[in-house]
Structures
1.
Amino acid sequence: MDPNAVKLRGFTLALVLGIASSAILPDNLAVVATPKGNGAWLYVETQQQIDLWKQQITNYNTLAGPQRAIRVLYVYSMDFDITYQSPVIGKLTEIAAKSFRSIPYVTHVGAIIDGILSGSANLNSLTSAKVKAFADSYARVYCNSSALDGIQLDLEPYSATYKNSTLTFVRRLSQNLRDNSTCAKPKFLAFFVGPRQADADLYDALGPNGYAVISGYDLDSPKAGYPETPKTYQTNLLTNVKVVLTSAATSKYGKFSIGLPFAASACEFQTGISTTNPAKTIPGYPMYDANNLTNSYIPNAFAVLNQTLGAGYEKVGNPFLGVSVWAWVSRDVVVSGYRHVPKLPFDTSGMMSYMAKTMPCKNTV
Ligand SMILES: *[C@@H]1O[C@H](CO)[C@@H](O)[C@H](O)[C@H]1NC(C)=O
Ligand SMILES: *[C@@H]1O[C@H](CO)[C@@H](O)[C@H](O)[C@H]1NC(C)=O
Ligand SMILES: *[C@@H]1O[C@H](CO)[C@@H](O)[C@H](O)[C@H]1NC(C)=O
Ligand SMILES: *[C@@H]1O[C@H](CO)[C@@H](O)[C@H](O)[C@H]1NC(C)=O
Ligand SMILES: *[C@@H]1O[C@H](CO)[C@@H](O)[C@H](O)[C@H]1NC(C)=O
């Protein structure tokens, strides 16, 4: 028996005892935990970033108003590691979450849990009883935090190899988050995933209090280290959003948010700057350019949403919950020795006022 098994025995016991008093909420009560509205990722590493980024989102929300505001904030919490005896939320995560809750129109703050399934988060190496025990321990810790309304998992790759064990974890964690013996108030479970990977099994495991956060960036790259053109980006996004709509409709749950590159990603960027010689650059394309909308990424992405979700792309609701803003990040996105800019969403001139007028809307306008 490996050392993990000894550590986990306690969790397994709690799991067995837990079943008797479990009260999983019916779908109509659990569904209220799912946030509706635009979201954003924030990978906070310092108090200074908490203050600065809070100010930026406050400025945006004040300008945008309640309908187009960024309502859901995902704050980095921890990396999933199967050797941990018990998860730790992170002190800065809770400080940030508490602080961000007072931003106007923010309704939900969730914790980001990252994990590499092919590495330290390899759920395949555990028995299914242990996978469930892990889900129980995560649920206990995150339900206990009054600063957090849910969890966004980024467990990669969600591929055939890891699917079964990942779904066992997701199903169990989501159930726990809507079980009133674990969570006094239900919390949401979001799962970050590629557009072609989000399948009915995933939506079903996420359940009524869950949804997929679909990557609407890094869909394709012309050549390692080089930018996708906005036109090809638009073509690829269109094909992929159609796939998402079709597969989401095969689950009775099937809700999703779409992440878009408001700041540089690996394949969508304005400039790549050599990390060893800043004079060496790879030119890309603007995330937004008021004078050349069709040659910039975000206007093209909004055009795709308009085309696929209808003029009603402006109306946030089922199955579309809004866009997720990539991203407020501490670290640079670096590909092949080049760091990508713009680093933050509002580093692009005019982006804030453009978003305030065109982001998907909570009600039709
Ligand atoms: C629950 O939260 C309280 C107060 O923040 C803390 O003291 C306690 O250790 C937490 N319990 C668990 C199981 O995380
Ligand atoms: C998939 O996971 C379940 C536990 O949820 C387990 O009972 C089953 O044996 C697994 N199937 C495969 C093919 O590994
Ligand atoms: C949990 O839900 C069950 C069924 O809806 C209900 O009977 C019970 O009172 C609830 N418990 C708490 C602590 O809210
Ligand atoms: C817009 O960008 C494209 C591609 O770079 C360029 O060919 C075109 O001249 C630009 N249009 C304007 C009005 O700047
Ligand atoms: C959405 O599409 C309609 C036509 O279907 C068009 O009139 C409208 O301007 C478009 N809105 C945006 C923001 O692209």
2.
Amino acid sequence: MSQSIIPVTAPAMPPLDEFVEEIKPLWDSHVLTHQGEKYHTLEKRLQEYLGADNISLFANGHLALQVGLRAMGLTSGEVITTPFTFASTTQAILECGLTPVFCDIEADTMVMDAKKIEALITENTKAILPVHVYGMPCDVEEIERIAQKYKLKTIYDAAHAFGEEYRGHKIGTYGDMSMFSFHATKVFNTVEGGALTFSDTMLYDKIYAIRQFGSYEVDEYPYVGTNAKMTEVHAAMGLCNLRYVDESIIKRKAIFEEYKRSLAGINGLSTLSYPKELLPNYSYFPVLFKSEALGISRDDVERELKSKGVLARKYFYPLTSSFKAVTDRFEVQETPIAEKVAQEVLCLPQYPDLPLSTVSDICETILGLIKGRS
Ligand SMILES: *Cc1c(COP(=O)(O)O)cnc(C)c1O
């Protein structure tokens, strides 16, 4: 018996003809990279879409985060961050020669618990790097207050928060900088790509230079740099996908609401509740399975779904603070809530073309499993 596989996510792709049309001019100009016309057009469109004071585009989100840290002059010291995130957040800190200091998360929102930041601040603290995990907004106001009080830089990992608005402000306008990822699996993609949005206009040239071997003028190399440019082909993909992103968020919303409806009212199972002041992008559908109440574990649910071809994923497990690359080098803080959430969380499939009937089937499988054990 053949059965179709339901992935946890599937990349958004524009109609092929449209993409071919978009890249045709490159065959005349022979400009494939180095901030050509496609790059500049996409940069301008995204600056508008994200409501950013300043924006710079990158080959991927991870390099954007690293370049952002370097552009703010962070080359040593401690960065307060969350262990409940994708590897990239913590690896960017490590690669920049900085020390990660792990702050616990809130049990319901799963973002960094801002009330626990101050206790972690030392004379070596340089910056705060919170993550709007699953597109849930961090406590941006409390973080801002702490950053000002202790003169710390703030750079948000907004990889999951594309296009969101919180308390009347675009999400990428909080803090000194925000990083967005345009990886194939994200709400908006350029195949691979990323962006930094930032408040200090004076940093534009520096960011541009670090992204390009440390140079923004011919024969001058004032900065240590890397190569993190976005190519014309990737920018062209972005221009096409940007036309469909609003429509895709509407589809994601319907899927999100179908899951919420089907999985409501079960003791021991909790789903994401967006705050009222958030315009969400419905990027993920994480569920917490509390084995004490349910009699089954997250891993049981993952296995059962897998046997039916549904590839739910343990985002985010394990915690980044448990990585060997971290524990070999640093004393790691205890984060008991993050520890528990990482054992309970499972992200269910969520992408615009996922049929609502499949969402119902997935929920039925989960409910059947819970019933069978209780
Ligand atoms: C995807 C992701 C990144 C890295 O983005 P890439 O574009 O894949 O380099 C960073 N942080 C988080 C939380 C992510 O999910």
